[in-house]
Sequence to fold (226 residues):
Amino acid sequence: MMKFLFLTLALTPLLLPLIFQVDKQIFKEGNLRASIGASLVATILFSAINVVLYLLGLISYDAKYTLAVSFKDVPLEQYLLHFSLNFTAISLYQYLNLRFPKNHLQKYSLALSNLLLGLGVAFLFFAYPKWYTMLTFATLLLTLLLIEYVGKLRFMYRAYRTFAGMLLLLFVVYGIMACNNVVITAAGGISGLNIAKIPVEVFFMSLAALLVSIYMFEFFKSRRAA
Fold:
């Protein structure tokens, strides 16, 4: 059973999109294809970051929790987890948009983004040379700058709302992984700030992945509508 723990955690989030589909039919008018495509783009990008973290010796995996199937020495389960969380985030994004269509708080989203940008700069300054922390906040900073100040699509309030909804799932999945040391993080590479044994870097990297996923989803939708 322990051998399948990581795989189970990686696949369990995919139950939620099925529930959302039954309740609100979120996958219609080409949304399923856009959701899968956006999830794959974010998965490839953040899996590459994971490979870099592994090659730098900042993370490692306990072999007793994996199926011994890997790519670039990173277990298959890690790639599946990236995809399932990205796909679930896009599904929740669509579900909440249908359930709560009002977008009146969008005007405050830039202020929140700027606050996160400031927080990211602070972490980059004070956490040097904690390379896991540096890579996490550099990724988040670049993502926020590109979306808010370069990109034309506006969806950030709804994206932040989705991230708030994803937090419980992230706590469960990464909390179980942390308690069982499924993924082992090098103490010298992180800030040392934890929430329920989960490094804070995990949440900020998850936010960056969610933003990329939703941006790509909206991008594919806009291309289809054009």
Notes: The mean pLDDT is 94.
